[in-house]
Amino acid sequence: MFTSLRLINFKAWEDTGTIALKPVTVLLGTNSSGKSSLIQSLLLLKQTVQSPDRSVHLNLGGDETNDLFNFGSFDDVLKRGTQSPREFSITFAFEAYEQSRVNEGRFSCSYRQTAVGAAAIQELALSTGAHRFRAVRKEKENYAIFIADETRPCAKDKNLAPERSIALPAEAIATLGSNGAIAEDLSLVIRRELENICYLGPFRRKPERDYVWNKTTPGQIESDGHRTIDVLLSGALSKDGKQNEILDGISYWLARMKVAEKLTIKQLGRSSRYEIIVHKDGIAANLRDVGIGIPLILPVLTAGYFAPPGSTVILEEPEVHLHPLAQSVLAEFFVRLSRSRHIQFIVETHSEHLFRRMQTLIARKETSAEQIAMLFVERVADNAILRKLKVDEFGRVNNWPQHFFGDALGETREQARLMLARQQEQN
């Protein structure tokens, strides 16, 4: 789980400060305020560690098949107006779900532009407990390796450049002696934290009428929801003792949202093709024929049950095309699965209904302000500004930005005033 994040000179952010991340973190804010940049910083590192080129320092994208985003050039990531040094940085802290020699740690990396326009690591710092390692870029592309706060490097060479932003190369590990194993384990745990991010964007693909199951389980749901049905088919048709666990869980939440009673899978004859059937009000319909709301929420619910314990599920606008009650129930889904399955949710949303239900859950003591972070992002001139919403034990927010969700009470007052005025005119 990611426990904090800090960005400096990254896209809209001059400096976020240290942002505390919780098991459920909700990002709110106006359009184009900088919310997505917070999410994208972690996705940039995820696609870097998954790059086939281990020598890459930062994978800014361009491969439509394998990359999550195309960030463009170094200048597109660097905050506009940044003067010397032209440098941006990403820092995060984490707690590992799986117990090992490294149970928590911190990653910090700053980047500058090379002569050919690529992003190159200026300084990488990895730490866990009392162990801290740094790789600092020197002249002529050489890198110096430091342990803790020592001012003299234990090695300096052009072959010591970090790999995929998170790892020291084998030559550096060897120079660290007995500390080398810790540094290597730390990089592996950081890589696992980033690889275990499941991301779903706001644009999700429409369903097919039927699907072929090739008797395999996908590694991950893709950012547009692709592979969701493969997960459902694998979960329902595999003989692993957990048959229908995911399907039953999804059916429960669809019923809570009052959009369907359950989902089932129907084989087409004796072929390897299957339909997803939605049951509601005594009618069984193909997923393709039930409107867009259920197909769009299906990847969100599936990700919550399919992501391995300890994963981070990042969602942009999960409420798309859902009616108000269903949006509210999403808050319960995030809270319950974060606790029962040890999944972290980072959710960017514009839904007032989701937010209000989160307040209610805190008031009911079904969760607490210690388990939930609600962050508001706004734009002041050309800078993104973050405000942590202060929520008390009754779910009340005492530093709420004015007019973001409109003025519901004011609208009610105005309606009452107009009704009274019209009645007086008629009398």
UniProtKB/TrEMBL annotation:
<dbReference type="Pfam" id="PF13304">
    <property type="entry name" value="AAA_21"/>
</dbReference>
<dbReference type="InterPro" id="IPR003959">
    <property type="entry name" value="ATPase_AAA_core"/>
</dbReference>
<feature type="domain" description="ATPase AAA-type core">
    <location>
        <begin position="24"/>
        <end position="354"/>
    </location>
</feature>
<dbReference type="InterPro" id="IPR051396">
    <property type="entry name" value="Bact_Antivir_Def_Nuclease"/>
</dbReference>
<dbReference type="InterPro" id="IPR027417">
    <property type="entry name" value="P-loop_NTPase"/>
</dbReference>
<feature type="domain" description="DUF3696">
    <location>
        <begin position="369"/>
        <end position="415"/>
    </location>
</feature>
<dbReference type="InterPro" id="IPR014592">
    <property type="entry name" value="P-loop_UCP034888"/>
</dbReference>
<dbReference type="InterPro" id="IPR022532">
    <property type="entry name" value="DUF3696"/>
</dbReference>
<dbReference type="Pfam" id="PF12476">
    <property type="entry name" value="DUF3696"/>
</dbReference>
<protein>
    <recommendedName>
        <fullName>DUF3696 domain-containing protein</fullName>
    </recommendedName>
</protein>
<dbReference type="GO" id="GO:0016887">
    <property type="term" value="F:ATP hydrolysis activity"/>
</dbReference>
<dbReference type="GO" id="GO:0005524">
    <property type="term" value="F:ATP binding"/>
</dbReference>
